[in-house]
Amino acid sequence: MTFALGPTRRLYAHLSTSNFVQCRTIKKEHTLKNGGWERVIPAFRSVCGEDGVSLGAAVREQHGRDESVHRCRPPDVVVWPRSVEEVSALAKICHHHHLPIIPFGTGTGLEGGVGALKGGVCFSLRNMDRVLDLHQEDFDVSVEPGVTRKGLNSYLRDTGLWFPVDPGADASLCGMAATSASGTNAVRYGTMRENVLNLEVVLADGSIIHTAGRGRRPRKTSAGYNLTNLFVGSEGTLGVITKTTLRLYGVPEAMVSAVCTFPSVQAAVDSTVQVLQTGVPIARIEFLDDVMIDACNSFNSLSYPVAPTLFLEFHGTEKSLEEQVTVTEEITQANGGSDFSWARDAETRGRLWKARHDAWYAALALRPGCKAYSTDVCVPLSRLPQIIVETKEDLMLNGLTGHVGDGNFHCIMVMDPNDQDEVIRVHEFTERLARRALALDGTCTGEHGVGLGKRALLREEMGPLAIEVMQGLKATLDPKNLMNPGKVL
């Protein structure tokens, strides 16, 4: 097992074994009967062409799963729209025939968000891959859902700008908006929720809305309800995001990374909390415990000491970096930390953070042939040392790794899906972890979303009245329950 801490406050909750059974046996109550598909498929092809529709089993299987342990039914058909107009036309057909719609970006989610629980139509958005309306002087850009974060930053390479939200996987930016994604840079730059200025969304009936008004891109607004953040994190249950307008940032004058080891998990996490509480504008601060460091060393042919470790990165001017580093070193050394090992050039920094981002694959390599299950929670910053130490104790019979930021951390557990006893023990642990975070005034997920596995925990976190409000919003926007049914609520 492995464990991780990160820059948004997050916690992964549990998937009871009944979730797996439900995924396999739930009836496709929306699936067309009596030759209905014979009428619908030609309608789909009239919108997006012969090559834009697939009934192939392998294609449907690919679009019915993400990176999670959830294995649900594939969709009945996959379509590849090329424009918002085609998304709208396809949605109108689905609405008329009562067919569920499941948006699909890159399939990098971790909570089963793309499974077609009730059959229906997968809208694969990869062919909508244009970068639109770059405004360098205003530090914003609009992109279609096929554009990934790496693709955008490659496009911006010569502009002096970049988009820093970095969940590790090369995820679709609209998919990142849909799940309210985060990443290692969130300590300084925030999550998707803070960096989305406007969204274009196709609703269940095919209507197209712009959450901040068509073409609007102000840095802030107090005009009306915050529809943008209603759709950020909605996980495809309210509409299909077909364009997002994002904040951009200037590439820092200087960047430097460092690695520091500690005698204990407590010392490393205490240092993290103290650095953040002093207001050091650190860009990244990530914790990996000894088990994860050992796994990363093996997977990436590295030689870091096998001990609780912080990975840090500082952004700013040369002068401001001196002050940030001085304060941080004083704090880490007071907690028994080693001297910093520096990574100053881009190539060395890239290798360092690649090791961090490869934690998922490094964990899988600990037990070849097994599956990884990732869960995250987030708590108030002052509660972070307590929950991490308690979680480490809870997992002392298993491997543990983590990355820390402002109260968010992940656990990656490697398990044999054919060992029912192990599966049950993993899910019992994740339930304890989630409730431990809720008891500390935290959340059952800071970044990965609710999807399938955390629906019961969402109810515990929000309370029945808040859930009723969410259900009311869902019923208003999607009265036929066609948008990614069975997720979140």
Can you offer a commentary on this structure?
With 489 residues, this protein is an alpha+beta fold. The chain is built from 18 helices and 18 strands. The strands form five sheets. It has a five-stranded antiparallel β-sheet. Helix 10 packs across helix 12, helix 11 packs across helix 14 and helix 17 packs across helix 18. The N terminus is likely disordered.
Task: Lay out the secondary structure.
Elements: E1 2-6, H1 17-25, H2 36-48, E2 53-54, H3 57-62, E3 77-79, H4 84-97, E4 101-104, E5 121-124, E6 131-135, E7 140-143, H5 149-155, E8 161-162, H6 173-179, H7 186-189, H8 192-195, E9 196-202, E10 208-210, H9 227-231, E11 240-247, E12 249-250, E13 254-261, H10 265-277, E14 284-288, H11 290-300, E15 309-316, H12 318-334, E16 341-343, H13 346-357, H14 359-366, E17 371-378, H15 384-394, E18 408-415, H16 420-439, H17 455-462, H18 464-477
Parallel strand pairs: 3-5, 4-5
Antiparallel strand pairs: 1-18, 2-3, 6-7, 7-11, 8-12, 9-10, 9-11, 13-15, 13-16, 14-15, 17-18
Helix pairs in contact: 2-4, 10-12, 10-15, 11-14, 17-18
Q: Largest beta sheet: what is the strand line-up?
A: 6-7-11-9-10
Largest sheet: 5 strands, antiparallel
Task: Please mark out the parts with pLDDT under 50 across 5 or more consecutive residues, or reply none.
Answer: 1-29, 399-406
The amount of helix comes to 25-40%
Rg, rounded, reads 22 Å
Distance between the termini: 29 Å
Supply the helix-strand structural class.
alpha+beta
DSSP helix count? 18
Average pLDDT score = 88
Shape: globular
Q: How many strands in all?
A: 18
Beta-strand content estimate: 15-25%
